[in-house]
Specification:
Largest sheet: none
Radius of gyration: 16 Å
Number of helices: 11
Number of domains: 2
Order of helices and strands: HHHHHHHHHHH
Distance between the termini: 31 Å
Strand content: under 5%
Structural class: mainly alpha
Length: 189
């Protein structure tokens, strides 16, 4: 029997509690990006880049609503409630700049890569929810701030990769499944 570190075991346990559909979350997100792109005459990569750019601090539903409005309204999109710098990044992507040249920060870049390549074993989207699962509790303000540090991000991402290896899954699927299970159990970060 394999003995896992507590943090990795928490990830495995939370992911195993997920409904079967949760494992396809990033595939579904890619399909949504493709649909939004087709509806608005932009490539899937552009739509996914816009979604990723607008994602910080947003619920998934609001993220998709904002992305759809931005693709329709372009520069007229106000992004009320969305970080202005992120709206500008999304507008640059809509104008034709490559998402990976515009997006910043490991969480947002990883989110984009997970949407674009849900089968990849490399990107892991580590947000406050992913970190709370690792910690086994709600995060303090100091812990949330530490998530922005590259070393902390890499450490948590490696724990998700380890959990994925144990489960025979890709890391993004484990992260998504554990995130969905956490939300369904009403636990917040």
């Amino acid at each position: 029997m394999l003995i896992l570190a507590k943090a990795t075991q928490r990830i495995v346990d939370r992911a195993r509690a997920a409904e079967p559909d949760a494992w396809r979350w990033y595939y579904d997100a890619r399909d949504i990006a493709a649909l939004l792109g087709r509806r608005n005459g932009v490539p899937t990569a552009t739509a996914a880049g816009i979604i990723a750019a607008l994602s910080p601090g947003c619920s998934w539903d609001r993220n998709l609503d904002d992305a759809a409005r931005l693709m329709q309204d372009g520069t007229a999109f106000s992004g009320a409630g969305t970080y202005r710098a992120n709206v500008r990044k999304a507008q640059r992507i809509l104008a034709g700049e490559k998402p990976l040249r515009v997006l910043g920060g490991p969480k947002v870049i990883s989110f984009y890569l997970c949407i674009m390549r849900p089968w990849s074993r490399i990107p892991v989207c580590v947000d406050r929810h992913a970190m709370a699962i690792v910690m086994g509790r709600k995060l303090t303000g100091k812990e949330r701030a530490a998530l922005g540090k590259p070393a902390q991000y890499r450490k948590i991402a490696s724990q998700y990769r380890e959990a994925a290896a144990v489960m025979g899954k890709v890391p993004s699927a484990v992260q998504a499944a554990s995130w969905v299970a956490q939300r369904l159990q009403g636990e917040t970060a």
